[in-house]
Backbone:
């Protein structure tokens, strides 16, 4: 009997504070898998923005610097410029990155800062209690768009991956989802590409995770998965918008060995 | 025989693993309430488990470990024993 | 062997920072402080440092936060409106106990104001400026030599007390040229075991300002308060030009104190017995020195290039019963030595009714 799936070592053995069905935990796990895979625990610095992701330091066993709301990419710029050989990533939600932090992320991307942005897009402000986010879908009801987001008043969902990909400093930009195991596996491959981008010093890497916030969507976890499939993915098409790296990932053959590849 | 273990005491009952299991070997136990106040997911110990690990992939709380009789090489990052 | 050179204030400050081991500068253009960033844009790469022009002052201060978290000596510079944008980052840095140097070559305000010299940012500098219960270490030079020396001092104090420090100067000090003695490089950056250098051979570390558990934030605030008390005890810098017997004490800081020095010389030449106290650290404020001197004099004239911001601290500091008066010129006007002298003359001769305030 062989254990073929376990918690990654860098993921501390602590229960998450996240709500039932929230996808943050999967993003945390995938991050830790990659940190372990590349042996980065001892030279990684994480920079969580303000939002549900801020407690990253309670779960991931690496050095962490909290950033003011929206400023994670500026803080990461400072850390990375001082320690260019460290692995630096930010962890930001749609309010943090897509609203208050747009200036910082666009310019960090445009400078080609060699760090990785983990962008968790659940189309709502989670920690503050379900207000409308820049990525909220048209018609989506939130506590500040009670009749549904109306483009005439609130504009349109912001597409960060598409927005950043054309910038010359961006080496990798992709959007993935986490609502099925198959999507989680694709997300892992994309995250690996993002890690490789930084490790090969190719520039700015950006990975957007479409994820569920059942609590603030006022849906059950099951309904949330359906909502992602039917509505979120229509508004936010998945895919790799830019990848300046070699077409074949160095680690791709390992995929053959995964337990999941058996099926 | 392949199997999984679920740390039920930390389960929040989202049932993503139930959706993921194609052999229907995981269910939410309505009879039990864990210390967090949720009905946890439980594994039926069915012999039909393929050890596919889809349940573990989708568990947001990272509570599922997967064991295989004839082990293929695990991913390095999964820190398998 | 000290090198003596003719230098502009902004350049002297930038060179002082380099001497102190500062290798990271993040900033955004604004008049009248561009000489600092322009100079450092070529100098920092020469000494193996990084100069980065950010997209805003908000980004600048947060880049400095990141560099400080990684254990580096870092700085930024700006002027009034840009310093306002930095208040968010300064509050986070203070809350996270991160060191760093912010230079404010002030301009007129509020709003876009103007680029002339003034001291209207005294409150913003000395009261913390951003949200929450904190202080900045604030140093106010009055010469090009001090622009250089206090930049070094500020970086040392910031590291020693793990708190952001500010140089509060203005366009007069930034633009004027004076001979400067350049200290030979003397870098003693204290060890920073708290820095985020990767969890190698130690536990993972965290830099944060979020305290949610019951009582945690109060404990943190008291800890910071104790630090500010230690600063008050140990780090006050003040220039005192006092006489045995005095009719009047003047208090002024920064570029304004140069005019006051001239006025004091003029007054003494006319037989007035006047003293002058110049706070060099605005926080910690030299309250004890002002209290002691005012006890002996009874009359204190504060001269400032604002509507009376430091005057509040002077009135809090003076010996009870001291007559206090203010000569204030906001909005870019500079009080001339003659104007100050006339005020000295009136105040010395006048009775109690001439004081605007009795403390």
Residues:
């Amino acid at each position: 009997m062989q254990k073929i799936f376990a918690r990654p070592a860098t993921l501390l053995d602590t229960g998450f504070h996240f709500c039932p069905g929230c996808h943050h935990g999967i993003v945390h796990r995938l991050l830790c898998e990659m940190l372990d895979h590349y042996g980065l625990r001892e030279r990684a610095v994480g920079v969580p923005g303000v939002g549900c992701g801020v407690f990253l330091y309670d779960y991931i066993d690496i050095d962490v610097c909290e950033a003011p709301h929206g400023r994670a990419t500026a803080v990461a710029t400072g850390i990375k410029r001082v320690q260019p050989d460290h692995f630096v990533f930010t962890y930001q939600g749609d309010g943090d990155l897509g609203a208050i932090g747009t200036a910082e992320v666009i310019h960090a991307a445009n400078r080609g800062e060699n760090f990785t942005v983990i962008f968790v897009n659940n189309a709502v402000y989670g920690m503050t209690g379900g207000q409308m986010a820049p990525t909220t879908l048209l018609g989506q009801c939130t506590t500040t768009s009670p009749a549904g987001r109306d483009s005439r008043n609130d504009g349109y969902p912001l597409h960060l991956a598409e927005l950043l990909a054309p910038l010359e400093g961006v080496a990798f930009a992709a959007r993935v989802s986490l609502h099925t195991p198959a999507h989680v596996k694709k997300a892992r491959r994309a995250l690996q590409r993002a890690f490789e981008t930084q490790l090969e010093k190719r520039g700015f890497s950006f990975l957007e995770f479409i994820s569920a916030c059942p609590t603030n969507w006022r849906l059950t976890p099951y309904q949330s998965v359906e909502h992602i499939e039917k509505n979120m993915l229509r508004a936010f098409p998945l895919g790799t918008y830019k990848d300046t790296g070699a077409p074949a990932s160095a680690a791709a053959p390992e995929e053959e060995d995964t337990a999941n590849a058996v099926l | 025989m392949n199997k999984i273990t679920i740390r039920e005491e930390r389960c929040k009952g989202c049932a993503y693993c139930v959706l993921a299991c194609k052999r229907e070997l995981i269910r939410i136990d309505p009879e039990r309430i864990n210390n967090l106040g949720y009905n946890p997911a439980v594994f039926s110990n069915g012999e039909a488990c393929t050890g596919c690990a889809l349940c573990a992939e989708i568990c947001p709380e990272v509570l599922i470990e997967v064991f295989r009789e004839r082990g293929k090489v695990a991913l390095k990052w999964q820190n398998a024993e | 062997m000290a090198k003596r050179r003719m230098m502009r204030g902004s350049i002297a400050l930038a060179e002082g920072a380099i001497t102190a081991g500062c290798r990271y500068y993040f900033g955004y253009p604004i008049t009248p402080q561009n000489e600092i960033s322009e100079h450092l844009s070529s100098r920092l790469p020469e000494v193996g440092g990084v100069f980065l022009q950010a997209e805003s002052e908000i980004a600048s201060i947060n880049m400095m936060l990141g560099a400080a978290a990684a254990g580096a000596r870092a700085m930024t510079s700006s002027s009034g409106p840009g310093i306002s944008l930095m208040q968010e980052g300064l509050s986070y840095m203070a809350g996270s106990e991160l060191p760093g140097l912010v230079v404010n070559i002030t301009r007129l305000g509020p709003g876009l104001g103007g680029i002339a010299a003034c001291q209207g940012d005294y409150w913003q500098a000395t009261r913390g400026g951003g949200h929450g219960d904190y202080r900045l270490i604030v140093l106010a030079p009055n010469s090009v030599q001090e622009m250089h020396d206090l930049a070094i001092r500020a970086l040392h104090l910031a590291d020693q007390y793990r708190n952001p420090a500010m140089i509060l100067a203005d366009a007069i000090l930034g633009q004027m040229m004076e001979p400067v003695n350049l200290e030979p490089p003397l870098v003693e950056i204290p060890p920073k075991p708290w820095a985020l250098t990767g969890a190698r051979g130690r536990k993972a570390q965290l830099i944060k300002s979020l305290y949610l558990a019951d009582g945690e934030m109060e404990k943190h605030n008291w800890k910071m308060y104790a630090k500010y008390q230690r600063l008050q005890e140990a780090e006050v810098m003040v220039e005192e030009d006092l006489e045995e017997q005095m009719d009047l004490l003047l208090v002024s800081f920064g570029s304004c104190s140069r005019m006051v020095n001239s006025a004091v010389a003029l007054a003494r030449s006319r037989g007035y017995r006047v003293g002058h106290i110049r706070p060099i650290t605005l926080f910690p404020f030299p309250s004890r020195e002002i209290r002691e001197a005012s006890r002996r004099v009874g009359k204190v004239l504060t001269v400032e290039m604002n509507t009376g911001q430091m005057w509040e601290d002077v009135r809090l500091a003076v010996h009870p019963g001291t007559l206090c008066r203010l000569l204030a010129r906001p909005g870019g006007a500079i009080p001339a030595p003659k104007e100050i002298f006339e005020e000295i003359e009136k105040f010395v001769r006048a009775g109690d009714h001439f004081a605007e305030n009795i403390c």
The longest strand of chain B covers residues 64-68.
